[in-house]
Amino acid sequence: MAIKTAIVTGGGRGIGLAITNKLRQHNYHVYIVDLSFDNPEEDLKNNTKDFTFIKCDITKSDEINEVFKTLKLNHQQLDLLVNNAGIIRDNMIWKMPEEDFDNVIQVNLKGTWLMCKEASKIMKEQKFGRMVNIASRAWLGNRGQTNYAASKAGVISLTRVLALELGKYNIFVNAVAPGLIDTALSRGLEPNVLQSLIEAQPSKTIGKPEDVAKAVYFLGSNESDFITGQVLYVDGGKSIGSNFI
Ligand code: NDP
Fold it and tell me: Which residues, in sequence order, are CB contacts of 90 under 8 Å at separation 6+?
């Protein structure tokens, strides 16, 4: 089976690492584009042939250009771009420092846009490609997340426009919107807060990074041909109804 090539931003930990591993299992060479890569799992330590780590801040277009230069040199093609890197800086709007608004928009929205821009050039040339952008259920509205929710709403809008612009080049672009997922982020919550969030889920469970990775794999593969511009929720049903917290 021919080796495919993927870029996963923020692919070195959390949900991004689960996506990296899922793609590696399916014959992809994965470019992990991340600020750091300090804590690779045993499996990654022992098999360095199916991934390449490139240190890159996705808010910096010159660093992104270097990523694409390396990728073109080594693999000449890009089958899949996964925009997963993201940050949160939560606060009620009256307490939120302006720089927390700017930073979240820079990383989550502008970083995604910059990556899509470069990827669209190579994918347009090869007349093939898939992009999957990691949004969040929070785009629907979450108190304390004016910056984050707006950035993820922007990611969904960007996804829809790219589907319109790139469809005729056989480039399909979709978003995955995770809900409550068991990562370092959610483990940092007070246990009683976490428990109440889990109880508010229709599924009464918390998702795993691997659940998100499965959806990304589906939307990045030929299994999802003819699906573009869509948002796939991986949230145990929390996006249904109006019971937001
Ligand atoms: P983590 O914080 O665990 O991982 C995010 C990764 O992105 C880190 O490796 C981080 O690097 C990297 N990163 C941050 N900023 C940049 C940047 N400027 N350039 C390159 N890489 C960067 O997050 P999660 O795994 O929890 O989340 C992954 C995605 O899923 C995010 O987009 C998030 O918004 C979304 N999401 C997560 C949910 C959850 O419950 N966890 C729910 C809904 C959506 P470093 O470690 O060095 O800071």
Answer: 144, 145, 148
pTM higher than the cut 0.70: yes
Confidence of residue 45 (pLDDT cuts 50, 70, 90): confident
- Sketch out the chain's domains with CATH numbers: 4-240 (3.40.50.720)
Query: 142 CB less than 6 Å from ligand 1?
Result: no
- The helix-helix angle for 14-25 and 209-220 (nearest 10°) equals 50
Q: Are strands 80-83 and 51-55 parallel, antiparallel or unpaired?
A: unpaired
Q: Which atom of ligand 1 is nearest to the CA of 209?
A: 25
Average pLDDT over every residue of 205-215: 98
Provide the annotated active-site residues: 148
CA distance 5 to 172: 16
How confident is the model over 128-186, as pLDDT tens digits? Answer: 999 999 999 999 999 999 999 999 999 999 999 999 999 999 999 999 999 999 998 78
Tell me which of 34, 36, 198 to substitute to probe ligand 1's pocket, judged by most ligand atoms within 8 Å of the beta carbon: 34
Distance 86 CA to ligand 1 centre (A): 4
| Gap from CA of 108 to ligand 1 centroid (Å) | 9
CB atoms within 10 A of CB 72: 12
Whole-angstrom Cα distance, residue 34 to residue 85? 8
